[in-house]
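Vesicle transport through interaction with t-SNAREs homolog 1A: structure, please.
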Amino acid sequence: MSSDFEGYEQDFAVLTAEITNKIARVPRLPPDEKKQVVANVEKQLEEAKELLEQMDLEVREIPPQSRGMYSNRMRSYKQEMGKLETDFKRSRIAYSDEVRNELLGDDGNSSENQRAHLLDNTERLERSSRRLEAGYQIAVETEQIGQEMLENLSHDREKIQRARERLRETDANLGKSSRVLTGMLRRIIQNRVLIVILAIVLVITILTAITFSVRRH
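Here you go.
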């Protein structure tokens, strides 16, 4: 499981390094090449998001006791992804303004106002994105707590079942012991009855013998 995560991790590191390099180059590129690089960065950002989703799925499969370290790394990668998207938005806004100025011939003041307005909207989107990410993180942590509670309940149920089985075995052993004791008592009573009968027969025999002996004399 961790080997798959580390493989995605390496791919993410290589991909984000390429994206960072291309974003830094955008302002210095000719218009035609700039358009191609912007499209390429958009595609690579989507690939990076898919890698993050795969890494997130891998983290969810890791046992809770080992998940903390990977969760911290995921938070770091998500922050890095957010920063890349922010840098790309600013670069793309600058690129859009440049293209619009070339097409429409806007003056510098209008371009600056539009850029400030777009940056303000971008910051609002970033704040909304951070709030959504925080909500997502809370949901993930809640899910982890729920999984741990279910695992604990499962362990408790197994303990209860084992205790019930031991009680059943004890009841069965007690039943066998009770039957054995009952049989022993029955045999003791039978032996005592036989001894009494034999004693009576012996006394009668002795008395009979004494009676015959007295009559003869």
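Notes: Confidence is low (pLDDT under 50) at residues 99-109.
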